[in-house]
Amino acid sequence: MTDETEGAMSTGDRLVYMANQIARNLAAQGQAEAEAMVADHIRAFWDPGMRARIVEIARERPSALSPIAAAAIGRIAAAA
Amino acid sequence: MTFTRETDHGTPPALATGRNVTLTIDGEAVTLPEGTSIMRAASLTGTAIPKLCASDNLESFGSCRLCLVEIEGRAGYPASCTTPIAEGMVVRTQTDRLKQLRRGVMELYISDHPLDCLTCAANGDCELQDQAGAVGLRDVRYGYDGATNMGQPKDQSNPYFDFDPSKCIACSRCVRACDEVQGTFALTMEGRGFDTKVSPSQGQDFLSSECVSCGACVQACPTATLIEKKVVETGTPDRAVVTTCAYCGVGCTFRAEMRGQELVRMVPWKEGKANRGHSCVKGRFAWGYAQHQDRILKPMIRSSIDQPWREVSWDEAIAHTAREFRRIQAQYGARAIGGITSSRCTNEETFLVQKMIRQGFGNNNVDTCARVCHSPTGYGLKTTFGTSAGTQDFDSVMQADVMLVIGANPTDAHPVFASRMKKRLRQGARLIVVDPRRIDLIRSPHVEADHHLPLRPGTNVAVLTAMAHVIVTEKLCDEAFIRARCDWDEFQDWADFVSEPARSPEATAPLTGVPAEELRAAARLYATGGNAAIYYGLGVTEHSQGSSTVMAIANLAMATGNIGRPGVGVNPLRGQNNVQGACDMGSFPHEFSGYRHVSDDDARGMFESAWGVKLDSEPGLRIPNMLDAATDGTFKGIFIQGEDILQSDPNTHHVAAGLAAMECVVVQDLFLNETANYAHVFLPGSTFLEKDGTFTNAERRIQRVRKVMAPLNGHADWEIVQLLAQALGLDWKYSHPSEIMDEIAALTPTFAGVHYDRLDEEGSLQWPANEAAPDGTPTMHIDGFVRGKGKFVVTDYVATDEKTGPRFPLLLTTGRILSHYNVGAQTRRTANTAWHPEDRLEIHPVDAENRGIKDGDWVSLRSRAGETTLRALITERVAPGVVYTTFHHPDTQANVITTDYSDWATNCPEYKVTAVQVGLSNGPSDWQEDYAEHARQSRRIIPEAAE
C-alpha cells in the first residue's frame, strides 16, 4: 500500500505480497538457498488452496513476483 | 480443601551458603541453614513465637517486640525475627519473664485498638486477635479515656479494599510489602511516635495515590486496617481451593477463598512457583466479571446477523451447529469450515477443539490467538534452538546480572514478574531497555535503566543486528560456547554478515533513531556484564519482521553464551494465561501437539491410530487466510472459542467483512462480545472458576485450574466441545479433564510425564516432563540445544511497507495497561474501569501543539485502514512522531486503524507500526456510529419460551 493505494488487497494480491515478503526476508541467504527456503516455507505453512492459487498467479502474472519468489513458486509447481 | 491459613514462618528462608548450624530451642536440638532467624527456626520445628510485624514474605523488621526470646549467655531479650541462629546457641521461647514482657507489649497495642472484634470484618481472621490470645492478654490497665487513634475516617476510595487507620498497629507490614514485594514504594509511615500512620503517597487517598492495587498490603496487614471490601460485605471464607489465574502469561496461583459457592477473595498462594505469593490488581481483585449480569447463560441461535437472538436448549443449539457445519461441508467442501482455539481456555479444552477440527471437520483449519501475538516466538525459537518456548523459569531472573528488555512493558502487562525483576534490579542487576516509549521500568523508585534505546518502531532487527555488530567486531563473543554448542560454519556466516559496516550502530542510527554510542555501550554491557537475560514481548513479535527479531535475539544469546543455565536465556513474556499451552496443544494449522508438522508421517500416524481416522497431511488455513477465503466465498463456517477477533485482530473492516461473508459463525464465550455481533450461534462459556483443567504459563509451567463453583451456564467448556463433537459423530467419552490430559500425555512426548496426580504432588511441572526429565525442566538447553547444534540465522533488516508520508506522518503503536486485559471483555466488567475508563491516545507535546490539540481533547485517528476517535493524553512517554493507544474498549476499536501487514513468516499482524494522522475531532467517526447501532441491533435477545 502507498498513500495512493488505499483499501484492502484482494486475496490474490495478498498472496503475491506474502510470497514476495518471504523472499525479501530470506534474500540474504543467497539466491539458490533463498529459493529453496521460500519454497519450503510455503509448502510448510500455506494450505493447498493458497499454494494452487499462487502457482496459478505465477503463470498468469509472472512479473508480479520477485525473481526469488517466482523461482520458489516454480519449484512448487514442478513438484506438484 | 477446608479453610486453613497458610503457615507463616515469620522470616524468609536464609540465603543458601551450604553450611548448617545446630542449636537448641526449648530443649530440642535443631540443625538448620546458617542465616536462618530464630523465629523461622522455631516455626520450622513446631514452635510459633508470637509476632505481629513479621511475615515470611518480608525481610525481618524487629519493630513489634512481641517475638522476644531469651538466649543463654546473652543479655536482654533479643527479637527472634532479627537474630540469626548460631552454632551451640541455647534459645528459650517460653519463660515467665517472656510471657510478662509479651503481655505488656500486647497491652499497649490493644490500648489503642478498637474492641469491636465481634462486629469487625476480620473477626476470626485477625493476627492481632490471635496473638492477644496467644500471649494470654486478659486485661488492659490503661483504659480508653486518654488520647487514641480511634475514630479516624476510613479511606474507602479504592474499589476493592478499605483502609481504616483506627485499626492500624503501625507494624509497617503494608509499607514493607509495597516496597519489598511489589516494588512500588507507594506507602510510607508518616509522623512520629503516637502520631505515626500509614500514608499512601503524600497524604493522598489510595485511589489517587501511586498505589497499583496489587493487594500486597492487604495481604500483609495483620488486622482489619486494610481489608477487602468483599470480606466486609460477605464475611470470612470457610474453605479455600488452589487454582491458577486466567489473566496473563505469568500464571499466578491463588487460593480461591470461598464461603459456600460464593467467592470471597483470591489470595496469592505462597507456594506458587510462578508468583511466589504475589499478585496484581487483575488476578487479585478483578474477577467480578465471572458473575456479571452481562454473562450469557443460555445458548442462542439466529438465521442471520440482522435478526435478534433466540434462546434455545443446549440440545437444539448443538444439533443446529452440527447440522450447519455438515451442510456447509457438503455444499462447499470439507475445507470450507474451521475453528479457533482459545488461549484463555485450558490445555484440555484447547486440545479438544483442535482434535474436533482435525478428526471431525477432517481438515487442519485450526488456528489460535497466538497467531496475533507470539506465533513468531514459536517460529523463531524453533528455528534457532529447536523448541518453541522460552528457556528459563521466572526464578532465573534472581540470578541475572544484566536484563535486556525489548518490546515489553512488564510493569503493565506482566506486573507480578515485573516485581521480581525490580527486586533483582534493586539488588544491583543492570538494565537495558529497547523500546520506543519510556516505559515505567526505565525509571521507577530505586530502579533506573543503564541504557534506554528509544528505537523508531519497526527497526528492531536493525538495532539487534547493530548490537551483534558491536559484539562480533569488538570480539566479545563466547567462542568456546559457540564452538561447543552451535554450528560453527553458520556462526561464521552470521558473524561476517553482522560485521559489515552497513550494520554498525553508526550506519544504522539514522534509520533506527538510536544514538550509536548508547547502542555500543548497551551491547558491551549485555556481552560482558555477567549473566545476561533477554525478556521480550509483543513489541518484538507484532512486526513485519517479528520472526526475524526473535531469531536475532536468539543469535545474541548464543553469541555471548547466555543460554543453558540459570540467570540467562531468551524469555518471551507471553500475553495470555494459556497462550503457551494453546500452542503446545497443536492449535496451529501446520502442526500437532508438541510442535510436530502435519506432514510428519510418524506423528500423524500416531494420532490416526489413537483417533481412528485418516488425518489431513496438508497445513490448514491461518486466521487471516480464513478471513480472506471467507471474503472470496470459499470458507463458510467457523467455530470460535473464547476469542474476540473482531476487536483484537487487525483491520477491523476486513475482519467484519470476512465474518459477515460466512454462513455459520459459532461463538463460545462468556459475553456477547464484538465477534458475536456477526455470529449465528452463541454457546455460553464457563469461567476459570467453574471448571477443571490446566494452564501453561510463559515459563512452560503446567498448573492446575480447579473448579471452585458450578458452571452458571450448566457446562464447562470442554463438555460443550464434547457435545458438539458427539453431534458431529465422534465417539468421545471423556468424563473428566484428567482423561484428556492422559491422552495428551500419550500423544505428546514433551508431556509424557504430565498427569493430574503428578501435578497435585508437585504443584506444577515445566515441560518437557517425561522419562528423561520426570520432574520437569526449569532451564532448557543445558547440555545441548533441542535441535542439536544451535543455529545462527542471518537476519537482514527489511523495512516495513507501512510508510509514513505527508498524509499519515505519525507512527501508531498499540499496547495495554495494567488495569485492563486485552479486549477488556473481563476487566471492563469490573471496578478496574476506575483507573482506565476509556482508551486514550498518547501524543508527544510537540506533535500535539502542531495540531492545536490540548490534553483531553477529542481527536480523530486515521490510517489507510480506517478512522476512529478518542481523547488525547499529552505525554513525553512517547517520542515525537510516535503515538500510542490501548485496545481495551470496543467504543474506540483501535484495530479499525491497524493494517493487514504482518510478519513475513507467521502472518502475526504488524500491530506496532501503523502510519496515522491525528487531528481535532467533534465526535465519533461514521464507522463508530454505524458500528454502535449494528451492535445494539445485534444484541437483541428473544427469551426462550416457557414450557
In a nutshell, what does this entry contain?
Chain A contains four helices and no strands.
Task: Give structural attributes.
heterodimer; A: 80 residues; mainly alpha; B: 947 residues; alpha/beta; eight-stranded mixed β-sheet; six-stranded mixed barrel
Task: Tell me the overall shape of chain A.
Answer: globular
Number of strands of chain A: 0
The major beta sheet of chain B can be summarized as: 8 strands, mixed
Poorly predicted ranges of chain B: none
Instruction: Name the structural class of chain B.
Output: alpha/beta
Low-confidence stretches of chain A: 1-5
Question: Major sheet of chain A, described briefly?
Answer: none
| Cα gyration radius of chain A (Å) | 12 Å
Helix content of chain B: 25-40%
Q: How many helices of chain A? A: 4
Order of helices and strands of chain A: HHHH
What portion of residues of chain B belong to β-strands?
15-25%
Write out the strand line-up for the largest beta sheet of chain B, numbering strands in chain order.
Answer: 15-14-25-26-27-12-13-37
What is the overall pLDDT average of chain A? 90
The number of helices of chain B is 29
Largest interface: A-B, 25 and 45 residues
Tell me what the structure shows:
The complex is a heterodimer of chains A (80) and B (947). Chain A has 80 residues and is mostly helical. Chain A has a domain at 32-79. Helices cover 71% and strands 0% of the residues of chain A. Chain A starts with 10 loop residues before the first helix and ends with a helix. With 947 residues, chain B is an alpha/beta fold. Chain B is 29% helix and 17% strand. Chain B is built from 29 helices and 37 strands. Chain B has an eight-stranded mixed β-sheet with strand order 15-14-25-26-27-12-13-37, with helices on one face. In chain B, strand 28 and strand 29 form a beta hairpin. In chain B, helix 10 (375-384) packs parallel to helix 19, helix 16 crosses helix 17 and helix 22 packs across helix 24 (652-660). Chain B starts with 19 loop residues before the first strand and ends in a 5-residue tail after the last strand. The mean pLDDT of chain B is 95. The A-B interface holds A 1-3, 6-9, 11, 14, 18, 21-22, 24-25, 27-29, 41, 44-50 and B 335, 364-365, 497, 544-545, 548, 589-590, 597, 599, 618-622, 625, 628-629, 631-632, 634, 651, 653-654, 657, 794-796, 798, 801-803, 805-808, 864-865, 899-900, 904-907. Chain A: This is Formate dehydrogenase subunit delta. Chain A: InterPro entries: Formate_DH_dsu (IPR021074). Chain A: Pfam families: FdsD.
